[in-house]
Specification:
seven-stranded parallel sheet; Rossmann fold; globular; about 45% helix
Length: about 260
Amino acid sequence: MKDLFSLNGRIALVTGGSRGIGRMIAEGFLHHGAKVYISARKGGPLEETANELSKIGPCVALTTNASGADGAKAMADAFLKHEQSLDILVNNAGAAWGADFDEFPESGWDKVMDLNVKTPFFLTQALHGALRAAASKEKLSKVINIASIDGIAVNPQETYSYHASKAGLIHLTKRMAIRLIRDNIVVSAIAPGAFASDMNRDARDHGDVLAKVIPSRRIGTAEDMAGAAIYLASRAGDYVVGSTVVVDGGVSYMRGGN
């Protein structure tokens, strides 16, 4: 029991790990003993984050645009230059797009779908061998997809492709989980609510106001997000197969989510 949440000796890859939720997860993994690779498109901020997090534990930056099938393959190739096995893959990199229904562009649809749905599938596929190499019945490998409560309950913003992509990712998690468990790989997901990030500027810039409509009366903290991810990534989460853990302070129930 004392090692239930330990990640000692495990190797993790967190996409979109330079900021926001990805950084929260990477930092939590490092505190619990993992070696962490973080990826992002922009090398400068990514290297800065990796240098800061390396004060906690080994953190390596991989500058890659992982969008779509080709990007996923490039991301996998970059990781495999360093490691031959992978214990934990966090598919966190994502994008959003907002526009009026009558003006919503195909570019905004494709960009979001490519990064939010296509990339998690094809990156997991490209790293399937590395995940299998690390896995055994006694020590399962983990894939954690970062969805959103917008995939469960609708918010007022006209972010059509984002809503659809996160709902699709939640269902994709279930389908992948059924297949990959036979390889001792557990797939699960997290659906965050309001966490301060560049994508969620309302939570970042107006957290006190937003907190008034959240049952918990606050936005999420780095510890809230890291705690959920550590749970799923560690032995503690081995029996959570295909499920999505909602981490939102109860706000999805206010929207009428299930």
